[in-house]
């Protein structure tokens, strides 16, 4: 396995970031700021020596004394993965810039910081399994997220959206869970398009295990991405941290199906906080799995855009003039172009027996002159015909509205 | 049949308005302004004499020479109807004020005015069949509109919404058509609530004829309302004129199901132009009958509010503090109130074999002191238990997220 574009990066830097990715649980503002200031090698050295600022040192806890980084890099290589670091050419700097902007708004904590995982902070490194360069794959990507307890409707729509995005050259990004996540990946794969699974555990693990075959197909042309080193378990709190990454890597997040107060809604709110497009798919109001989507669509402040098709998703996230949805318009009928009086005269015409203009004027509620004025145009448009004794509807025009 | 609150109105005025309602097709700005200025009796006299301003005179056309007003009033009485005029106490002046405001924005036409029916203009009189006073019934009312070619889903939702509104003391207003209109009336009737059918033909006619039994039930406690005198046919152009009245009489319009570019959407736009609440019910994106609703919900400028229940409809149109929807909130779980570190320690606890705090600190990625600090709280909340040799999840807390 050759690391894409990774040849130029100092192995010491990569090793330091590998060490940090295990020593400190991802999602810490304080650590990220410390690394930004001092660089990954100096930070790893300081933490190992126990000489980092107390607020950062406490984040590593007992892990400061362990070093599995060489092992982790080897384990990654064995499963066809690599550690992508910000110093690499394939680092998705542009999408992740949103996290750097968000973290700038975070105040510097004064005491001990305990609620770290709710904070939007860039990753220090990404474990990436699969051959394609990460930056290329996520450049034009959309997150499709939703409930694990999805309905057949939600899975159908997720698959259609992913396939539609794939056909237009866009990558689908999602978790690897049952339900909407899996349906989205399957839809993209069916369209021959690459997908990206962002996991909350090591990239050497398949979670859930039942998705072994699915992940194998994903890895043919797509990627499995994680902030956690190989072997790490999908602990519950990691999903929240992972979700911010799904939101950050993509141009927008589509919630396909979600129960009330669900994780998918949280991902949507994170996407909004990051300045990304937030979209939701409506569904039957009788379905509990669409309640979360409808809540998002009803939220006036943090509102989502209603989308019903891949074209509408790209209308929201796509570049101007390139992916914008073409508005579908119904062709105008002859009736559409009629004046108001002409329409009324037309409505006044009987189906069978022809009547004189005076009669039409009475029924239509207008002047006989008006009737005489509009009748030629109606006749030209094949809407009325002269029977010899009066005017009636032309056979094809008789369908009442 | 006794006209409700009609005793005080000069019969000459009522007769003049009856005459005008047949002589000129409803929906004319010029006529309405002329009547506002000169009064109905003077206007009827002028039109009959052919001495009205040309722009108004042409509206009556050949009908200026006919007088069926006495007949019309008699025919109305025979079917249990009356002519309600602005001079009556039961005239719904407050809701219809929106039309008077809208018409003030209309420029005074200089030439011949042909496109009259697109204009929002108050009615000159309303033919009302049924015993209840019109103003009382529409004071707290909502329009439920939608496609005639509705789906079982749309009809179910229309019925549920109407029943929910009825249970809360609100009146459903709709057309009398197949599909959503009928489902809405049936839902309200099932809840024992009154409904109002606004027709595009005379109130002595049942259109469509198949709704004879439905209209009979509506008339038990509700009303059939029309701008057109008895005997008038439901000509196609009249539906557009009628639709503005549905929007005007109510506090808001809910589009339940609508195809792309449909009449229901037009009614919604009229409601918006009148400053009324516009709402739409979402549905499966796979249903053609929800496309119109989704279009309304996607329209950023003339956007509708997404509603999924009668409570949400009243949240939009209801009076403050009276009908406002109660937000449903899920009770907080013990886990919800935990600190971030406590949640991570909890996630680190194994299900079966107890482990020491040092091990928990390693898995959770925090200091041993942190673990020792949060464990008592976790134990108090029955989330973890001490096995004698270490800590593990309490049996009930073990369900992973």
Oligomer: homodimer
Largest interface: A-B, 61 and 61 residues
CATH level 1 name of the domain at 134-317 in chain A: Alpha Beta
Mean pLDDT of chain A: 89
From the spread of the alpha carbons, the general shape of chain A counts as elongated
Total beta strands of chain A:
11
Largest sheet of chain A: 9 strands, mixed
Description of the structure:
Two copies of one chain form a homodimer. Chain A is of the alpha/beta class. The first copy, chain A, has helices at residues 11-23, 29-38, 40-49, 54-60, 69-78, 93-104, 134-139, 152-167, 180-190, 212-221, 236-249, 263-273, 291-298, 310-317, 340-348, 357-364, 368-380; strands at residues 81-84, 126-129, 141-146, 171-174, 195-198, 223-226, 252-257, 277-280, 305-306, 384-386, 391-393. Among the domains of chain A are: 134-317, Rossmann fold (3-Layer(aba) Sandwich); 335-397, Orthogonal Bundle (Arc Repressor Mutant, subunit A). In chain A, the strands form two sheets. A nine-stranded mixed β-sheet of chain A has the order 1-2-6-5-4-3-7-8-9, sandwiched between helices. Chain A has a two-stranded antiparallel sheet with strand order 10-11. In chain A, helix 1 (11-23) packs across helix 3 (40-49), helix 2 crosses helix 3 and helix 16 packs across helix 17 (368-380). The N and C termini of chain A lie far apart (67 Å). Residues 1-6 and 326-331 of chain A have low confidence and may be disordered. At the A-B interface, helix 4, helix 8, helix 11, helix 13 and strand 9 of A face helix 4, helix 8, helix 11, helix 13 and strand 9 of B.
